[in-house]
């Protein structure tokens, strides 16, 4: 047999094997645990549990997402944060909010849910002529389940007379259009949208894209939650995520804990996919964070990472 045929057969077998593995991985949920300590957190916040979900993109884990909802319940969160992109908003997709409805219904029974926009929510809001009625239906679902929708807004989480600030940043669509290099964000961009954090108050920022981690740190966020990069689609040992949905290669910001000065950013690898429906060595994840009240010398600890097949 000519060598070219042998080569083609080997490439074909590897390709088909990867597709089969990816098919199963798309529905293999893991739970990743972090612990974040800060001297800004009073003792009363010790052990406070935050569930973070992002980029579900209409994916399902069990019927009506029962497996995912049960995983959140078992993790026992005090609050649940959604960092955008529950659905798929693309020209070639039919309007479908069935997954959005069932997941928000299930989560809202477990703990207060706070929701920040991803680029897909932003798209249907900013292009109503292209997506007629989409945003209205989405807003009705949020209202029905009393979801706290944070669009350039800040709320205070209260416990025993102390507070933590939580903001949802609605980043403009132009910052999602990656054309070979990062678009510059003007100084005071975040400040103009949500004001400045208080110096002694622990401030959590939900910001869908992790690309602007330097800007979030400069603004003064203590803890940032992002997603959007889908864990880099395929993760390689040492090199990490290969590519984002915007075709950024080896961004280094696609999954895990990122440190910039005093700021810690946790990037969820997300729960679903769209357009490039492949995941390899990059299982969908539910992120759980436990807050710790710690002194400055031990301000942040990367917590134990627990992977749990469900
Ligand atoms: Fe996204």
Spatial separation of the terminal alpha carbons: 45 Å
User: Over all CA atoms, what is the radius of gyration?
Assistant: 20 Å
Number of domains: 1
Helix content: 10-25%
- Structural class of the helix and strand makeup? alpha/beta
User: What is the CATH superfamily classification?
Assistant: Metallo-dependent phosphatases
The hetero molecules present are: fe (ii) ion
Major sheet attributes: 6 strands, mixed
> What is the CATH topology?
Purple Acid Phosphatase, chain A, domain 2
CATH architectural type: 4-Layer Sandwich
Strand coverage percent: 15-25%
Write down how many β-strands occur, each being a DSSP E stretch of 2 or more residues: 14
Shape: globular
Given this structure, which CATH class is correct?
Alpha Beta
**If strands are numbered along the chain, what order do they take across the biggest sheet?**
1-14-2-3-4-5
Overall pLDDT confidence:
91
Give the helices and strands, then pairings.
Layout: H1 3-25, E1 30-38, E2 49-53, H2 66-75, E3 79-82, H3 98-108, E4 113-115, H4 119-126, H5 134-144, E5 148-149, E6 153-159, E7 162-169, H6 189-194, E8 203-207, H7 213-219, E9 223-226, E10 235-236, E11 240-241, E12 256-260, E13 263-267, E14 285-293
Parallel strand pairs: 1-14, 2-3, 3-4, 4-5, 7-8, 8-9, 9-13
Antiparallel strand pairs: 2-14, 6-7, 10-11, 12-13
Give the structure's gist in a few sentences.
The protein has 310 residues and is α/β, with parallel strands linked by helices. Helices cover 25% and strands 23% of the residues. A hairpin with a 2-residue loop joins strand 12 (256-260) and strand 13.
